[in-house]
Write a structure and sequence with these properties.
Distance between the termini: 97 Å
Strand order of the largest sheet: 4-3-2-5-6
CATH class of the largest domain: Alpha Beta
CATH topology of the largest domain: Nucleotidyltransferase, domain 5
Helix content: 25-40%
Structural class: alpha/beta
Radius of gyration: 29 Å
Shape: elongated
Amino acid sequence: MSAGLGGGLGSQRGELPLMADVNVTSLVDVMLVLLIIFMITAPIMQGGVDVELPKAQARPLSPKEGMVVTVNRDGRIFVDQTAVSMNDFRVTFRSLVATRHPSGVYLQADQRVPYGRVVQVLAIIRASGVGNVGLVAAEEDSP
């Protein structure tokens, strides 16, 4: 009775049976291409504040985790690559430390910045209750 209705797998009219499998080969290919693109472009996109660090003979300290405060050659202050004025830094840094609870603060300053400016920034960091402040320097070339 139901032979003419076309129910079932379609073997009665010479049709190919339906496949219930999903072909994921093309999806995997696209994902691998995207992964390669992101692996190539991610290091290029990591910008930062342009700073020429002073060289030191001691083992250089590089910022790993925690908060990074940068003073560039123009004397502008950056907190984790966000520019702030000296007044804003003075007013908001304490609350920022209270909110984020960093394990340490890394201060990096361009070697052409006046020493007084670096000391002002360091004093604000210390006044905010941060006990662990690291000064970041570049490695000195060996003679």
